[in-house]
Amino acid sequence: MNLVNVKKVTLRKLEFSDCSRMMDLVNNKNITKNLLDRFPIPFTFKHAHRFIENAKTTKLATVFGIEYKGEYVGNIELMHGQDVYRKGATLGYFIGEEYWNRGIASAAVKMMIDYSFKYLDFIKINALVFDKNIASQKVLEKSGFKVEGILRKAVYKNDEYLNEIHYAIFLDNYS
Ligand SMILES: CC(C)(COP(=O)(O)OP(=O)(O)OC[C@H]1O[C@@H](n2cnc3c(N)ncnc32)[C@H](O)[C@@H]1OP(=O)(O)O)[C@@H](O)C(=O)NCCC(=O)NCCS
């Protein structure tokens, strides 16, 4: 299923034909500095292939490629909570730098939340953001997420300790 919105943003399944573009988009320190270390530099074709293979087969996450005006520009994923966390899920995303500040992530996040609350059995979506990542905080706040708390020095990234802001949005006050 493809989800399309008025901003010409589409969420669709990732395909192996996205590997080399994904490699190009992620191979950028301005992207990886705000992501988990499973997105290293260099981010090789092999890393992209493994990511897409996992996205196609896993039952533990819902993963989409993001298209803008028909072009693949990034990914958005929802990691499904397990065990006692199974009614919640955690959001992650990136947009290639050349496409920043056009509202693409904000549109993709809204579409992913709509999809999750409509088709998946979650009552809460979490998003964990490094405190220096103002753009992502803006995206979440524009999409209705609220801060639940700040975990100090929760992250060790690029030889530095970072605080992490925990955001969430709930099904019962989402319209
Ligand atoms: C975070 C990210 C996904 C945003 O993508 P995007 O498509 O540019 O996002 P949008 O255009 O929807 O919104 C970005 C907002 O942040 C604002 N912004 C961007 N950089 C900013 C900065 N340094 N300071 C303040 N605001 C900033 C933009 O002005 C925009 O707000 P506005 O719509 O009110 O003007 C993108 O920067 C990215 O991929 N970063 C690296 C990976 C990452 O951080 N992923 C999220 C991990 S939690």
Automatic annotation (TrEMBL):
Highest rank taxon of the organism: Bacteria
Q: Which Pfam families match?
A: Acetyltransf_3
Q: Which Gene3D superfamilies match?
A: 3.40.630.30
Which InterPro entries did the record assign? Acyl_CoA_acyltransferase, GNAT_dom
N-acetyltransferase domain residues: 14-172
PROSITE patterns, alphabetically?
A: GNAT
Protein's UniProt name:
GNAT family N-acetyltransferase
Organism per entry:
Flammeovirga kamogawensis
